Amino acid sequence: MAGSREFFNRRLHSLLGVVPIGLFLLVHLTVNHQATGGAESFNRAANFMESLPFLNVLEIVLIFLPLLYHAIYGLYIAFTGTANTGRFGFFRNWMYLLQRITGVLTLIFVAWHVWETRIAMIFGTPLNYQMMEDIFSSPFMIAFYVVGIISAIFHFSNGLWSFMVSWGITISPRSQVISTYVTMIIFVLLSIVGLQAIFAFI
């Protein structure tokens, strides 16, 4: 019984990391990347997202609740699992370890980012290009966001590999090798998008 519950929790944890959390990451990166077109371009994209009907309900149901479950169960996995990197050093063991490390870093980053943006909006700070430009006026915050964004993108990209394995999409060793290359390409491309967005505000 306990084994089947853990199997279900891990499958759900993996699924939520892709849908809807992963999809939200892609949308968020796309909106932020509009900053490369200037302040007006970013403000237009941000205003469109903020004008979506039932936005608060959508954020709670499709983002915050799935993220809360994914984070809590992810912390459980991170602090109870063993990677065996010292004994074996296999590539996948290192990726397993990096997945756990970036998961914790991403959680810290997301918590701070929500505080600095969504909570600030509750107290009257408008979400616009100026808000992000002010955040990135500090070199420390630039470095913090670079690490946070890279961690989040790696966690998502490498998580795609685990998702495809756990859901029976990539069963054979060959398909898993191919998916490793594909997910790492996704990581590189999304990292470029994320970094371009950050430096567009500087």
Can you give the helix content as a percent range? over 70%
CATH class: Mainly Alpha
Structural class: mainly alpha
CATH architecture annotation? Up-down Bundle
Radius of gyration: 18 Å
Distance between the termini: 53 Å
Strand content of the residues, in percent?
Answer: under 5%
Number of alpha- plus pi-helical segments: 8
How would you describe this structure to a colleague?
The chain has 202 residues and is mainly α. It has a single domain, classed as 3 helical TM bundles of succinate and fumarate reductases. It is built from eight helices and no strands. The N and C termini lie far apart (53 Å). The relative contact order is 0.13.
Short descriptors:
202 residues; mainly alpha; 3 helical TM bundles of succinate and fumarate reductases
Layout of helices and strands, plus pairs?
Layout: H1 2-18, H2 21-33, H3 39-50, H4 55-80, H5 91-122, H6 129-135, H7 139-166, H8 173-200
What would you say about this model in short?
This protein has 202 residues and is an all-alpha fold. Helices cover 81% and strands 0% of the residues.
